[in-house]
Amino acid sequence: DGGITQSPKYLFRKEGQNVTLSCEQNLNHDAMYWYRQDPGQGLRLIYYSQIVNDFQKGDIAEGYSVSREKKESFPLTVTSAQKNPTAFYLCASSPRKSSYNSPLHFGNGTRLTVT
Amino acid sequence: GQQLNQSPQSMFIQEGEDVSMNCTSSSIFNTWLWYKQDPGEGPVLLIALYKAGELTSNGRLTAQFGITRKDSFLNISASIPSDVGIYFCAGLGGSQGNLIFGKGTKLSVKP
Predict the structure, then answer these.
(1) Of B78, B70, B72, B77, which is closest to residue B15 (Cα–Cα)?
(2) CB contact under 8 A, B92 and A107
(3) Using CB atoms, which residue from A92, A100, A108 is nearest to B31?
(4) What is the pLDDT of residues B71-111, one digit of tens each?
(5) Interface test mutation site (partner B, options A29, A47, A99, A104, max chain B beta carbons within 10 A)
(6) Which of B39, B25, B108 is nearest to B73 (CA)?
């Protein structure tokens, strides 16, 4: 079945360590996204990529980095510079970037806890 | 920046009741989307709306794209226990074309 796979489901890290969250899609979608979700909040956009080897900052990019070396993969690194990294991270993809008739499809998320 | 006001924040339902929630904005959107999120899972698309005034159904769910393009509502008829979860609206518009999400409506079952 086609879909978006995020791994791992739960991740625990010590403060000061960088950590990379995996996101893979086999939907042949051009665009991929990373969102952060905090309790009682809507989804906030961290980074997005419309095409391989290109990505753009979203609303809350500080303390995060991404790469898009392959169409199907869009890993997110949470760096030690991110002041409040504990959150639920969601990866999504769409056939084209957020345009008409191209809704987002989400993975099942990674819950990151930093202590 | 653009913001969506989603209400209510939370509500309790009894099986069989109808449920209504809405999203409003001071900005115009070209697309409205409604998602449902179960605990610990990613949001799943329920209904997509692309035209002002459009009314679309998906089983017991009905959503409308407001005629002013600044609002949308979602109705659930005859609710069942598996309807519990968080419902998000999302609007697409603006110069960058990024999707803007509401803060969600949490649906719980009445004790």
Answers:
(1) B78
(2) no
(3) A100
(4) 999 999 999 999 999 999 999 875 556 788 999 999 998 87
(5) A104
(6) B25
